[in-house]
Design a protein that fits this description.
Belongs to the peptidase A1 family. This protein is mainly beta. The protein is 11% helix and 35% strand. It binds 2-acetamido-2-deoxy-beta-D-glucopyranose (2 copies).
Length: 427
């Protein structure tokens, strides 16, 4: 019995030190084999599934789509009958175990060649742990010059993990797995960057409707959107530093406060930081439909928003929201309904400002609700910035420099996330 905690401690110390090395690729059994020159970025469409409220990207031939999980540590899906595995004592196996999610049991790593490496990704929709073989797979994705797709590449030997087919039942229809974009060594940004020798960075631009596709880029700019004049997103970014959390490979903002209609919301600032166990903090999540606030923040925030909109007629509440307005009473602007703005006040003194389109969710023809939800008194995070608040915002995650670039709503510059030109340019 006593040997288990020792093993656990030993392996987590070892893994943590390994995680500071650049992503490993050449050490894996299957070396990436496509040519690595000439492409400065990869591009992939993002689709919104309005029923399941999830966003997905195609990474294979055919219709299989992968759930986009900005905080996920790796790529996972169901296993095919014959799939390569890695030994437990391989370096790549240690990388795979760098961020062990505490909800997953830690099994013994047996010495010797007969032990095959497994990973324990967590299904972000059910928050259940999945036992998955560490394996490798091919990814098919388009290259881009920043204006259009320029062709398609097969990236072979992308380290991933796979579980029994039963896991597919826990995912929405049409979703074949999960694509993790976190800052860990086996997440797609690190693997693509080392494969193509571009910067370890990616951008996501989530669509606001299911009849249009948004876009994700991996690699170096420019990233153009159709607009008049043509809009290059990275020229318009405001940057803020991302905080590291030893316990989680996700991306965390350095938030100093939240304001509603120009007034700072009063709450205990302390929860915006991590505690000694890595709890608290402000996380970005593409698998959380609406921003979730810890109750300590939610209640004063809700009160502040109700006060700021006190002149607007109310509509009956629609779950999971607590404040709904009669939309016929609302004026409209280029950036959605004309309602008080919300500022995420960053430590640098800059604001990520949200306008109507990212604040109010139209729940039926006559009702628009404040699209923020109560995380309760035991919420793990102070704030989880959800997907609705990111829609039609261009976000550049510069993993290498640990910073986030954001544009605020693209509607303000008369474009949207649906305006990347996916027509392949003729050569
Ligand atoms: C950020 O937002 C706060 C609250 O709305 C405001 O007082 C402050 O001036 C803003 N800062 C900048 C740089 O716009
Ligand atoms: C999209 O790109 C294609 C290929 O370069 C081009 O022919 C077309 O005009 C572009 N569409 C728009 C609306 O600019």
């Amino acid at each position: 019995m006593a040997s288990i905690p020792v093993l656990l401690l030993f392996s987590s110390v070892l893994l943590f030190s390994l995680s500071t090395f650049p992503p490993l690729c050449s050490c894996s059994a299957s070396v990436l084999s496509t040519p690595s020159t000439g492409h400065h970025a990869l591009v992939v469409p993002i689709r919104k599934d309005p029923l399941a409220n999830v966003y997905s990207i195609p990474l294979k031939q055919g219709r299989a789509s992968f759930l986009l999980d900005i905080g996920g540590p790796l790529l996972w899906s169901a296993c095919s009958a014959f799939h390569p595995t890695f030994p437990c004592n391989s370096k790549i196996c240690m990388v795979a175990r760098t961020f062990h999610n505490p909800i997953c049991p830690l099994a013994k790593i047996l010495p010797g060649p007969s032990c095959t490496c497994y990973a324990t990704p967590v299904n972000p929709l059910t928050n259940k742990c999945i036992f998955a073989d560490l394996t490798s797979t091919d990814v098919i994705i388009s290259t881009t010059d920043g204006h259009n797709p320029t062709g398609s590449v097969t990236i072979s030997g992308v380290t991933s993990s796979c579980a029994s087919r039963a896991v597919l039942k826990s995912l929405p229809r049409g979703i074949a797995g999960v694509a993790g974009l976190a800052r860990s060594g086996l997440a797609l940004p690190a693997q693509f960057a080392s494969k193509f020798s571009f910067k370890r960075q990616f951008a996501i631009c989530l669509p606001s409707t299911s009849d249009a596709t948004g876009v994700a880029f991996f690699g170096n700019p420019p990233f153009f959107f159709l607009a008049v004049p043509e809009f290059e997103a990275t020229a318009r970014l405001t940057y803020t530093k991302l905080k590291r959390n030893k316990m989680s490979p996700g991306y965390f903002l350095s938030l100093a406060g939240i304001a509603v209609g120009g007034q700072t919301v009063e709450f205990l600032q302390r929860v915006l930081d991590f505690d000694s166990l890595g709890h608290g903090g402000v996380k970005l999540s593409t698998v959380t439909p609406y921003t979730v606030l810890h109750r300590h923040i939610y209640l004063p925030f809700l009160k502040a928003y109700a006060r700021a909109t006190s002149g607007i007629p109310r509509a009956p509440k629609v779950a999971p929201f607590d404040l709904c307005l009669k939309s016929s009473a609302l004026g409209s602007t280029r950036m959605g309904y004309g309602v008080p703005q919300i500022d995420l006040m960053l430590v640098e003194g800059r604001n990520w400002t949200m306008f109507g389109a990212n604040i109010l969710k139209q729940v039926d023809a006559g009702t628009a609700c404040l699209a923020f939800v109560d995380g309760g008194p035991k919420a793990e995070r102070a704030v989880v910035v959800g997907a609705f608040q990111m829609e039609d915002n261009f976000l550049l995650v510069d993993v290498a420099r640990s910073r986030l670039g954001f544009t605020s709503s693209l509607l303000g510059v008369r474009t949207t996330c649906a305006n990347f030109n996916f027509t392949t340019a003729a050569n």
